[in-house]
Amino acid sequence: MQNSQQELEILDNFTNTFKNEFYQYAKLMEFKKGSSPFFADDLLKYFYIVVDGKIKTYQINFINNKEQTLMVYRRGDMFDVISLLDNKPHDLIYEVLENAKVMQLPIEKVRYWLENDLTFNRKFFPYLAAQMRYTEELASDLTLYETKDRLIKLLIDNLNPNKKFKYNLLHNLSNSEIAKLLGTVRHVVERTLKQLKSDDLIETSRRNIRIKNFQELLNKASERVLK
To answer: What are the DSSP E strand ranges found in 65-147?
Structure first.
């Protein structure tokens, strides 16, 4: 199973012994765009690491059909860390945004590594902390800022390599998916993008947004946050 394409960055600095054990238990799985292959019961048995593609997790209000994307998992991302830690079902919905490959691992084996392998432990907990910070920031943004502010902030974070879960996130995402990241609807995002275009701050093409004046956009974000 192991090859250079599938070698994950999370395995950097591990011994060959651990890598061999990892690939002994790992099962490579492939999923098509649009599928919803993960359910709460599955995530009590298995832990997943993304090798390629994009998978989003979200929640939806079935009364008003409002949808909020909580995370978009990409190469190297792991789920479900909550079920891994508390061994309880996690009420989330998963959807494959781009054809994806994932490593499926028995969750009990991952717990064993977490408890007994110091290198794995040191890899996992900083990742967990980054997820928690991302979730905290998402909650704050949804509560404190208007849609335009959130979109400007997302455009800036999309270019920031220090923003692990947002860097290059918008590549090939539709306006509908961007809206779900922001907790709004597509026409609001399109109206806001049109405003930013009229200010000559961005330009758009199919599923691509390019910032034309980063400093001015950064200034606009700073001004709006300070208000």
So the answer is: 66-73, 78-79, 93-106
